[in-house]
Design goal:
Elements: H1 4-38, H2 41-78, E1 82-91, E2 96-98, E3 101-110, E4 116-122, E5 135-141, E6 144-152
Antiparallel strand pairs: 1-3, 1-5, 2-3, 3-4, 5-6
């Protein structure tokens, strides 16, 4: 389910976000320096406050989620994998944030041991995942579904 294209897309978004952050910081820093040179205190104060607020906002709102998602993708590519087999009981409709990724809960009744588990499916990969009632063999990284190895409809 995860490909090198996913990693390339997130790298591209991170570069774009760094560029936006750098451009905003340069423009506001130039306004701050101009206010200092021209001795216009209101301009200097406004530019200084806007500089701090813009950098913090752009970092926390845009860049940090992308960095966390890149770390999630790296763990999915390099982490310890295991397999699980069972029947899909349900897949939630509402995505939630888990480990830096938007995910949907998948309730799975395992074959061995006969136990119900909650796993997490990346919300962007939902269209490729089979629906409720399907028997699946999954590759997992922690509690996250990395790959659907096999899926059979109930007979």
């Amino acid at each position: 389910m995860y490909t090198e294209r996913d990693m390339e897309d997130i790298r591209r978004r991170i570069r774009r976000d760094w560029l936006a952050l750098a451009l905003a910081a340069i423009v506001l820093l130039a306004a701050y320096v101009a206010g200092m040179l021209l001795r216009v205190k209101p301009m200097m104060l406004a530019a200084g406050v806007l500089l701090v607020v813009a950098v913090i906002f752009l970092f926390l709102y845009f860049l940090l989620p992308d960095l966390r998602y890149r770390r999630f993708l790296m763990e999915m590519g390099e982490g310890l994998m295991r397999e699980a087999c069972g029947n899909v009981l349900s897949v939630s409709d509402e995505p939630e944030l888990q480990d830096g990724a938007r995910v949907q809960r998948v309730h799975l009744m395992l074959d061995e041991p006969r136990d119900e588990r909650i796993l997490y499916l990346n919300a962007s990969k939902r269209e490729r995942f089979p629906g409720a009632g399907t028997w699946v063999r999954l590759q997992l990284c922690g509690r996250h579904i990395a790959e659907v190895l096999e899926a059979r409809e109930p007979s």
